[in-house]
Amino acid sequence: MGPIPLCVLLPVTVLAVVVAAAAAENAVDDDYTWPQWKVPLVRKRHTVPLSSPNFSAHPQPELSGVCGIECQRHLPSTSLDDLEQFLSYETVYENGTRTYTSVSVQGLNEVTEWPRNTSSSSRHKREVYGPDTRFTISDKQYSTKYPFSASVKISTGCSGVLVSPKHVLTAAHCIHDGKDYLDGVQKLRVGILREKSRRGKGRGGRGKGKRRKGDKDKEEVLEKEENAGKVDRKGKGRKSRSRRNVESEKPSLRWTRVKKTQVPKGWFKGVSDKMTADYDYAVLELKKAPKVRYMDLGVISSLKKIPAGRIHFSGFDDDRTGNLVYRFCSVSNESNDLLYQYCDAKPGSSGSGVYIRLKEPGQKKWKRKIIGVFSGHQWVDVNGEGTQQDYNVAVRITPLKYAQICYWVNGDSSECQVA
Predict the structure, then answer these.
(1) Considering the domain 34-197+226-415, what is its CATH architecture?
(2) What's the half-sphere exposure (Cβ side, CA atoms, 13 Å) at 205?
(3) Largest CB tally within 10 Å, which of 46, 143, 216, 330?
(4) What average pLDDT does this structure show over 128-157?
């Protein structure tokens, strides 16, 4: 065979370079795109009535530890029967009645398996690491606008996030201590920051994710805040003229009663044993839907693969009463059920929705989604040998948890097959 003519070789070489560049570009783009997950189905088997709770528990200032990243590897595999027991749940209604619902899990073999975590000993609190990097969102220009407007306050002293027009995702320990429901849950309320009108009445926002003209500009302003941290860091610093003019009109919380509360059985003492921390989440259904934009749920297999591995969340920290507090940081470590990080936080922020921002598949549009629930400060057995490392911990949304929460929100598991 003779030599290949240069006029043929050059186009082939150029084509190879173009194909390689396109492949590299697609690989990079994949890192910034929400993955699509096949989600198992969580279906109701039967519901039975239970006696009314005592509502005698008290809020927990700090959870007692977690068997962490290496420690969990020594645990036996969880059977399907165990998973179905952990995902079965209790429902408490506003009139004080209570039911227990058992579930079945279908299609689990079609989903990548997500192992489990557990827990260890607690010590003194240290929710802030080094310089405090939290930002106070006190200006109504931001606090009543998405994504901050999706953050809510729970009357038991925690935070939460709207995941539907009338459903709030929060931490289970904000509702139940593992043995009984907290005092105050029988009259549970959720507070939404609303802008005050001149007549002193709250002014409603948009519902169901609808946008008004000018929202794109507001989104760009918020992105600058997230990336550059231009929000007032400790409630201090230079204030613009417009900032000074609106401070007297600081947004206030408008409270809405909770219709029912749902908590997974895996959170209860003596059920999931060392895996209790993995089930520290609950959903509250409101009696009336506030006209506020909510945030969708998302599933991500590893934040280490996401550029910067950065997470965000906003909550009502106790040390900044009446203000919404926003923070972001990179995840330090992760297991299949928990995210370990050093995002500065204080009591009151527990239950906040942890979110990231990626592109929608096949689109250039970026979208924020909730990928976890902030649980709080914990000491973690990192190597299975008793070595303790303290972290601020979040429970991540796995395909199974997505299926359960989606079922609670929609009441129909057939709407929850893809995350």
Answers:
(1) Beta Barrel (2.40)
(2) 31
(3) 143
(4) 83
The answer to whether 379 and 389 have CB atoms below 8 angstroms apart is yes
Using CA atoms, how far apart are residues 326 and 317, in angstroms rounded to an integer?
A: 9
Residue that the structure tokens 């923070």 belong to? 327
Structure tokens at 32: 């910034």
Q: How confident is the model at residue 391, as a pLDDT?
A: 81
Q: How far apart are CA 275 and CA 68, in angstroms?
A: 10
- 3-state DSSP call for residue 348? coil
Distance, in Å, from the CA atom of 325 to the CA atom of 197, rounded to the nearest integer, reads 23
CA 315 to CA 350: how far, in whole Å?
8
Q: Are 416 and 100 within 8 A, CB to CB?
A: no
Alpha helices in 126-257 (DSSP H): 140-143, 215-228, 241-246
222 CB-near residues (< 8 Å, 6+ apart): 142, 145, 146, 147, 148
Q: What is the pLDDT of residues 171-209, one digit of tens each?
A: 999 999 999 999 999 999 999 998 765 554 444 444 444
Q: Calculate the dihedral angle through the C-alpha atoms of 404, 407, 409, 411, rounding to the nearest 10 degrees.
A: -150
Report the pLDDT value the prediction gives residue 45, as an integer from 0 to 100. Answer: 95
- Residue 262 token pair: 């749902």
**Token digits for 280?**
């520290």
Longest dimension (CA), the chain: 90
Residue-wise pLDDT tens digits, 32-80: 899 888 899 999 999 999 999 999 998 876 665 567 666 777 777 889 9
Tokens representing residue 306 in the block: 């996401």
CA 299, 302, 305, 307: dihedral to nearest 10 degrees? 60
- The domain ranges of the chain are 34-197+226-415
- H or E, element range at 264: strand 252-264
Q: Decide if 263 contacts 175 (C-beta within 8 A).
A: yes
Q: Secondary structure of 126-155 in the HEC alphabet?
A: CCCCCCCCCEEECCHHHHCCCCHHHEEEEC
